[in-house]
Give the backbone structure.
Amino acid sequence: MGAGKSSVGRRLAARLGFGFVDADAEIEKAAGASIPEIFTAHGEAAFRDGERKVIARLLEKPGIVLATGGGAFMNAETRTRIREKGVSIWLKADLDVLVKRCARRTHRPLLNNGDIRGTLAGLMEQRYPVYAEADYTVISADGPHDSVVDQILAVLPAAYNGLAANQQS
């Protein structure tokens, strides 16, 4: 949460000439409810099950940049599908950057406990070893998201960079 997945994803998709899909928005559309509402009514386990199904469907779409929620990559089945269907990029941010970005928003159910820093630190400890399995890691620092997109384009396989070059000519 707060690494810039949606903002960076939109910019990356534009540079590649791909469509952009935010998995959280698609989950909300499929459920007819917001993520906080899903968490409240059905719990995190039900949300994660729906998230897994929606992401599996989205991964069948060609030519997209897909931003997944912070917990999606923790699911082994989802990680496997992402490996089979695409390229994964971990937008790695340090705790201070995440706290600064997440403190501005109140729509994140896992952070609505009054201890944003402590919760994020715990999530980082749990999730970062799994996130490290991503194909590429790019640092999402407290700066312009376009510089993160430049870093991604520098590490993406040549096939994707070729698409971006064709879109700009």
Observations:
- Residues 5-155 form a domain with the Rossmann fold fold (CATH 3.40.50.300).
- The chain has a mean pLDDT of 83.
